């Protein structure tokens, strides 16, 4: 790639049959971004004259994940919103500052949140019967939306650095349309920051490798990335702790988005404010090449409309007041809070269980029954209960429950099938934990392949996803203890 950036390549051949019927366009002489400004017109004809909003200061939370959570109201400043400032301009400038797309004519477009954005994106790119590639365990709502539209999710292996570029190439190069029953995928769905549900971070080198494969096989990458800014400052248990850096240095040191490597306009990035400013606002934004965003804008005009004007005004005013420096400071402090909660959770696991490194080279940890004799005698204390990798950020932990060590697993598998044995034991475990007042998400909700396919592939265990995003510190050990007391 030359140092001089070029415009996006022509991706019109990727449009779905439905997208080809969409004719909505921004007014002549305008660009895609201007569509978002229309919602602010004629506000004097609505009964709400003003809304008073109290904003927190960018420095509301401390930067160190070991610091205590502040109590009480953190006074910010009072603002009257619905001022008419265009939030889209702020967003476009923000994307340019943070992600630095590697081609010239990229655009941004406000949407009503990432879940809706994914649904809209596959509607304009894929036809019923088409397929998309994703991690073997992927965000369950994305899988549900694709399946509901008659689309096939195709699993690619994942390791601790993210979706495997090697396995991606293997799947594409060996594609047998007759055996599969559908055409080779044209879209990759993945996260560029913290992966949901595993909590792991895709490295910059892995993103480069995936992008190179996408160019060779003419694929589009949809980067759904709500947890991008929640990259932890240091691994769990780091002896050095978070390094000192300015807010600008912190932002520049985040593992970059796929956009940074996108010199052909093959990436459609989905962002949301739900994990940074607050859930329920139904406000996010796309970044991508002009043709794709024109079709997305047309879809919104005809079928969804654009986000609430109030949501745009409140969040837009907040961003206007914070400016880039203030918003970076806010994100950094917020991330430190989630990093602190991650550390609390793993500390509780160490307290409740005998946690050891899985081996000498990986970051994975394995948990065994504690040596205080609280486990059933039928379960040997040398057999592992579960394993996990401390998340690189985000809000979740992904536990691999070692059902293959359960004293009833082999007998049940012989009596029924491995898939049925897994389902029965995992249901018993999840139900016992739920009845005790603790909620985990069952891993099969995130699985691309069904129970039988995973069992045939040799997968004996099951997964649980836990959230550490809320709740007082003293409750963090309870859920971990229930795995110990109820699992066997």
From TrEMBL:
Tree of life domain: Eukaryota
Domain Aminotransferase class I/classII large: 108-351
GO biological process assignments: alpha-amino acid metabolic process
UniProt keywords, alphabetically: Aminotransferase, Pyridoxal phosphate, Transferase
Protein's UniProt keywords contain Aminoacyl-tRNA synthetase: no
Gene3D superfamilies: Type I PLP-dependent aspartate aminotransferase-like (Major domain)
Cofactor(s) this protein requires: pyridoxal 5'-phosphate
GO molecular-function terms, A-Z: pyridoxal phosphate binding; transaminase activity
Listed InterPro entries: Aminotransferase_I/II_large, Class-I_PLP-dep_aminotransf, PyrdxlP-dep_Trfase, PyrdxlP-dep_Trfase_major
Lipid biosynthesis is among the record's keywords: no
Pfam families with a match to the protein in the record: Aminotran_1_2
UniProt record similarity statement: Belongs to the class-I pyridoxal-phosphate-dependent aminotransferase family.
Protein name: Aminotran-1-2 domain-containing protein
Source organism (scientific name): Mycena venus
Organism lineage: Eukaryota, Fungi, Dikarya, Basidiomycota, Agaricomycotina
């Amino acid at each position: 790639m030359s140092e001089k950036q070029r415009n996006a390549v022509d991706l019109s051949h990727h449009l779905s049959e439905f997208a080809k019927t969409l004719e909505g366009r921004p007014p002549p002489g305008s660009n895609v971004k201007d569509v978002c400004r229309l919602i602010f017109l004629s506000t004097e004809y609505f009964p709400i004259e003003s809304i008073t909003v109290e904003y927190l200061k960018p420095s509301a939370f401390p930067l160190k994940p070991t610091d205590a959570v502040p109590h009480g109201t953190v006074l910010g400043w009072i603002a009257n919103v619905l001022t008419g400032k265009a939030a889209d301009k702020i967003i476009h400038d923000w994307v340019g500052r943070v992600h630095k797309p590697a081609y010239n004519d990229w655009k941004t477009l406000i949407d009503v949140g990432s879940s809706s954005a994914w649904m809209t994106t596959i509607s304009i790119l894929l036809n019923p019967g088409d397929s998309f590639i994703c991690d073997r365990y992927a965000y369950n709502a994305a899988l549900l939306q694709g399946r509901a539209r008659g689309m096939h999710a195709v699993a690619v292996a994942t390791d601790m650095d993210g979706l495997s570029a090697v396995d991606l190439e293997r799947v594409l190069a060996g594609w047998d349309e007759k055996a599969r029953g559908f055409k080779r995928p044209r879209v990759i769905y993945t996260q560029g920051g913290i992966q949901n549900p595993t909590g792991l971070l895709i490295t910059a080198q892995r993103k480069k490798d995936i992008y190179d494969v996408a160019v060779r096989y003419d694929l589009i990458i949809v980067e759904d990335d709500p947890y991008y800014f929640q990259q932890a400052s240091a691994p769990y248990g780091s002896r050095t702790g978070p390094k000192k850096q300015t807010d600008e240095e912190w932002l520049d040191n985040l593992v970059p988005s796929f956009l940074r490597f996108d010199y052909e306009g093959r990436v459609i990035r989905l962002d949301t404010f739900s994990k940074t400013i607050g859930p329920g606002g139904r406000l996010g934004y796309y970044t991508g090449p002009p043709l794709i965003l024109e079709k997305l804008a047309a879809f919104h005009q005809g079928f969804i409309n654009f986000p609430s004007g109030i949501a745009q005004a409140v969040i837009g005013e907040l961003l206007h007041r914070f400016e880039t420096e203030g918003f970076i400071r806010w994100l950094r402090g917020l991330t430190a809070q989630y990093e602190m909660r991650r550390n609390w959770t793993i500390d509780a696991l160490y307290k409740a269980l005998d946690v050891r490194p899985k081996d000498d080279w990986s970051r994975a940890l394995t948990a065994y029954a504690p040596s205080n004799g609280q486990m059933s005698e039928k379960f040997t204390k040398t057999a592992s209960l579960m394993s996990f990798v401390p998340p690189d950020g985000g809000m979740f932990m992904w536990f691999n429950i070692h059902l293959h060590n359960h004293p009833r697993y082999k007998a049940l598998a012989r009596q029924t099938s491995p898939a049925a044995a897994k389902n029965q034991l995992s249901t018993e475990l999840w139900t016992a934990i739920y009845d005790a007042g603790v909620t985990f998400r069952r891993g099969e909700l995130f699985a691309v392949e069904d129970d039988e396919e995973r069992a045939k592939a040799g997968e004996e265990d099951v997964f649980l996803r836990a959230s550490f995003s809320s709740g007082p510190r003293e409750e963090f050990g309870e859920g971990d203890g229930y795995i110990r007391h109820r699992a066997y």
